[in-house]
Amino acid sequence: MFLQDKDRQALATFLRENLVQPVYLRFFTQELECETCQDTRTLLQEVVELSPLLHLEIFHFLVDQEKVKAYGIDKIPAIVVEGENDYGIRFYGIPAGYEFSGFVETLVWVSRRSTDLQEETKAFLRALPQSVTIQSFVTVTCPYCPQAVVLSHKMAIEGPLVRSEMVEVVEFPHLAYRYDVRAVPKVVINETVSFEGALPEAQFLAKVKEAIPLP
To answer: What is the pTM (predicted TM-score) of this model?
Structure first.
């Protein structure tokens, strides 16, 4: 059990007051050779029990290959957060510690089907000429990481061609090495542009624009 009684009650109230439309969680797991899969599953089950608008579906990473390919899952544990559409939002690793707040906030924005991003940001994201993948490398002990993750997820909600991935680096050390993650949050956009720290919206958007080649 992850949630204490008082936390469960507070979260249930928060979800009741803030969720608007159904949110679907697709969890990809494999009990063997995955240290946090069981814990992540337990956490998701506890959260889903707190709201009738939350729905959890569990897939086996090795068995459910059709779903794995459809959602583009390449590592586990993996959580897809969907509304009526797949916004491209992914959590790789357990969203615990500080990341739990970012996970809950993401549920709210997905349930609303829209975000509080600036109108010019939304317009740019909706008109993107090519796909953009934003990877946010985090740890569960980083208080600034959720800000970067949630902002990236908001961009995915608003931009049909945007994919946003949280990656917990302790669980995926090979990726920390590959992307030279020395401090978190570290954000990598389209494998070409990266920055450290939780940037405000305008500066984050500037980095997205930098990652898109000029025509």
So the answer is: 0.96
Tokens found for residue 86: 């797949």
Q: Is the residue at 56 inside a domain?
A: yes
Segment 70-101, tens digit of pLDDT: 999 999 999 999 999 999 999 999 999 999 99
Residue 199 burial (10 A CB sphere; 0-12, 13-18, 19+) = middle
pLDDT 10s digits, 127-148: 999 999 999 999 999 999 999 9
Q: What are phi and psi of 176, to 5 degrees?
A: -60, -40
The total number of structural domains that make up the chain? 1
Q: What is the CATH number of the domain that holds 191?
A: 3.40.30.80
Q: How does DSSP assign 119-144, residue by residue?
A: HHHHHHHHT-SS-EEEEEEE-TT-TT
